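look at this record:
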Amino acid sequence: MKKNIFCLLISVILMGCSVGQEKLETYLGSPKNFIKDPHFAQYQESLNALESEYLDKKITYVEYLGMKKELDEKYAKEVQEREEIISPNP
């Protein structure tokens, strides 16, 4: 009886993982996709868009560096704010 309940529980958990946006095989194949940081993902998308603009010669190198610096500072500020929330100093 205990084996049946255990098997049922495991199958429900595995089925629940596969019903979401991504299948369980995605997580098992590359565990780095299991935990996602939305702040970093947004930063990475913005950085990729900025690099594409530079490579398409829509902006100059000086503009690229300035915008990249602003983006880096914004991301660093978000990380610092998040760290303060997670581990407040007494």
Q: What stands out?
A: Residues 43 and 71 are 7 Å apart (CA to CA). The helical segments are 2-19, 24-29, 38-55, 61-86. The two ends are 51 Å apart (CA to CA).
